[in-house]
Design brief:
The chain is of the alpha+beta class. It has helices at about 75-80, 90-100, 105-120, 125-130, 140-155, 170-175, 250-255, 270-280, 285-295, and strands spanning about 1-5, 15-25, 30-35, 40-50, 55-65, 180, 195-205, 210-220, 225-230, 235-245, 250, 300.
Length: about 300
């Protein structure tokens, strides 16, 4: 297996950034804005999203920078066609279908995926929904447990990761657990600006042995990072992660302990399943998995 970085570089390093924010325009309507860029391009996407269905009501795109031969401006016109898509199964397939195979479609897809990820971070609990749950007694673990129950019920998060797996419910009684986010995040009001924001950064450095990869995310709920070295033969070493800010302190940290299990892994073109087994799934962290995928999708894994 030979590893090849898929993007032409004029230096020994690569940097891709994503900056985004969400405003509340009206009850159940989210205005999502995101900008992605690297040394070749810069795009901005804007969505109007209806919750709780998370349906994209309106979509628009602008090409801020990028050579027209590599990033066709026609994609920005086509992008409006994704209106009506719902975030979830089939989302990427729909975006690919609407954009076609013009140069730059892959980068627009990457940005659309980030838009979908952040859009689902804003909840708008109704009084009827909240009435289903008892008021907590006041301890940090009970407050966190209540938030956990609401998360799972509102977004169908049961067993989506270590924190939301069924077995983790017992941890609220055996440990001190506290929320890493303001409960007011679930009750944004029409007219509120920047109720949620997110910043992401991927950096790749060429080394004598291959590549040093780092992928980080910071927002109102998270401040997490994963890094690993990837040899030219596809072998991972020096894998580590950290979570300075997490949704549930006392639980989410457990998933970080799985990251060193990547060491020695020989990555191949089935890397999605490989990483899902080691850092994702019901025993891992969805965000560490996504951050890893964001890096690996920038490489080709070619059989020798």
């Amino acid at each position: 297996m030979a590893v090849q970085f898929s993007i032409p570089l004029s230096s020994s390093s690569y940097l891709r950034t994503f900056e985004s924010e969400i405003d509340i325009s009206a009850e159940n309507d989210l205005m999502v804005r995101g900008v992605m860029s690297d040394h070749r391009f810069a795009f901005e996407h804007r969505w109007k999203v209806r919750a709780p269905e998370y349906e994209v009501i309106e979509a628009s795109a602008w090409q801020i920078a990028g050579d027209k031969s590599d990033f066709d401006p026609e994609l920005c016109q086509r992008y409006a066609g994704i209106a009506g898509v719902r975030i979830g199964r089939g989302f990427s397939k729909r975006v690919v279908s609407d954009l076609g195979d013009l140069p730059g479609a892959q980068e627009h897809l990457f940005l659309a995926i980030e838009m979908a990820r952040i859009a689902q971070q804003v909840y708008q609990y109704s009084p009827e929904f909240e009435a289903q749950f008892p008021a907590p007694s006041g301890s940090s673990s009970e407050i966190a447990h209540l938030a956990w129950l609401k998360d799972r019920a509102y977004m169908n998060l049961a067993n989506s990761c270590y924190a939301y797996r069924d077995e983790s419910e017992a941890l609220f009684a055996s440990r001190e657990v506290r929320c890493g986010f303001d409960p007011g995040l679930t009750r944004p009001q029409p007219g509120e600006k920047r109720v949620f924001w997110r910043s992401k950064r991927i950096s790749i450095e060429r080394t004598n042995q291959g590549y040093a990869c780092e992928s980080a995310m910071e927002d109102r709920i998270h401040d997490i990072k994963i890094r690993f070295d990837l040899s030219r033969e596809g072998v991972i070493s020096n894998a580590q992660s950290r979570g300075l800010r997490v949704p549930y302190y006392g639980i989410c940290e457990d998933a970080q302990l799985r990251t060193p299990g990547l060491n020695g892994l020989k990555v191949n073109d089935a890397f999605v399943a490989q990483f899902a087994e080691r850092v994702g799934g019901a025993s891992g962290c969805t965000h560490l998995f996504d951050l890893s995928m964001d890096c690996l999708r920038l490489f080709h894994f070619v059989p020798r």
